[in-house]
Amino acid sequence: MRRVVITGAGVLTPIGNDLDSFWQGLSTGKSGACPISHFDTTGFDTTFACEVKDFDVTQFLKKIEAKRMDTFCQYGMVTTMMAMDHSGLDLERVDRDRFGVIIASGIGGMVSTENAHEKLMNSGPGRIPPMYIPMMIPDILAGQVSIRWGLRGPNFGTVSACASSLHAIGCAVMSIRAGQADLMVAGGAEASICPLGVGGFNSLKAMSTNNENYATASRPFDRDRDGFVMGEGAGILILEELEHARERGANILGEIIGIGFTADAYHLTAPAPEGEGAQRAIKMALKEAGLTPEDIQHVNTHGTSTPVGDMNELQALRAVFGDHADKLLINSTKSMTGHLLGAAGAVEAIATLLALRNSLVPPTINLDNLDPDAAVPIVAKEAVAAEMEFGLSNAFGFGGHNASLILRKTIL
Q1: Cα–Cα dist 197/59, whole Å
Q2: Residue 255 forms beta bridges with which residues?
Q3: DSSP one-letter code for 392
Q4: Which positions of the chain have pLDDT values less than 70?
């Protein structure tokens, strides 16, 4: 089987606008929560989120380019630029017919949809912007990336709610393993901190309404959690076939060795009891990686800070890892970044990679009172230093979509 390694990465998050600042935020336990600035929150149950801060798209894209992109697409394009630069690729020396793009968005251009609907209601159908549809559809980011860099390999987007970008990475790995490509851009982007996004999740009773204590509201696994905190941003990886990377002298950051995709087939929004679908995804990833549960040292959980979801995932970890679960270094970086929805899986896979490379597991902040039903111990408050070889990253989405990814630090 062709081996797939990571040779570049880029992030844009509520706690850092590049890899270095992102890692600094993670390792020091920085909260990305703030009062919402994107729109007037009067009348909304939730008035805070984890927004990207100090971002000026015109530093990266021409104004005319940016104007033709929804915010999620801007985030993804800029993050892809970062990942391309990080990879050290010379595009004139690679076969761009064998360079593909799979980038996810769980929701796509919701901001563009709001703007177009306002035009429709106020001025009639003739005033709907002509670029509305190309700005709104979730797959357009993969198309924009392929056009900008002339990448003519496999090209599409994945949509599976909060598992979307982990599915994108897994599908990109499969494309390289199958011999369809030698290089892939993979990841996800999301920008849904807008009236429809916040109001919709409020109606679903899924988001925290702890407006008075917004900085500590994202508290995965805590007894007093009351829902997730919405985040935004993007995470992008450059994936490469191992020998292709070696031949060009690439700086190899790590390897993806196990993928697990399953469905709960249970409920639209609730996870299967005891995380049954998650258990199967983790076991599938372990089997593909050729590992036993005892080989894993670190787990970056989906850990959204929702009452039911958190406990189901921890039950799944206990069921899969048994007594070894007590030795795992388990965290949720959503306590800092908030929940980036369709971009969460990619950003957290990068967080897992950085944890392995830096021998440090970031904390789960705001965890003051561990839920008494928690089935496993959690890294809380402060980062924990540890030498680690293998890390597991999980992402689960509405509709019962489960994705697990296993990364290895050392390339043998």
Answers
A1: 27
A2: 5, 408
A3: E
A4: none
Ramachandran quadrant class, 17 (left: phi over 0; alpha: psi -120 to 50; beta: rest): alpha
Which member of 50, 73, 162, 171 is catalytic? 162
Identity (one letter) of the amino acid at 239?
Answer: L
| Residues whose CB is less than 8 angstroms from the CB of residue 153 and which lie 6 or more positions away in sequence, other chains included | 96, 97, 98, 99, 100, 101, 175, 180, 181, 183, 184
- Catalytic-labelled residue, pool 86, 167, 339, 401: 339
Q: What is the pTM of this model?
A: 0.97
Residue 203 confidence (pLDDT): 97
pLDDT of residue 1: 84
Q: Are residues 187 and 235 in contact, defined by beta-carbon separation less than 8 angstroms?
A: yes
Q: Which helix (H) or strand (E) holds 233?
A: strand 233-241
pLDDT reported for residue 375: 83
**pLDDT at residue 289, rounded to an integer:** 98
Helix (H, G, I), strand (E, B) or coil at 25: helix
401 noted as active-site residue: no
Residues 221, 209: Cα–Cα separation, whole Å? 17
Q: Residue type for 301, please?
A: T
Tell me whether residue 171 is one of the annotated catalytic residues. no
pLDDT digits (tens, 9 = 90+) for 278-323: 999 999 999 999 999 999 999 999 999 999 999 999 999 999 999 9
339: annotated active-site residue: yes
Closest to 28 (Cα-Cα) out of 16, 17, 18: 16
Q: What is the pLDDT of residue 412?
A: 82
The residue with tokens 């003739």 is 126
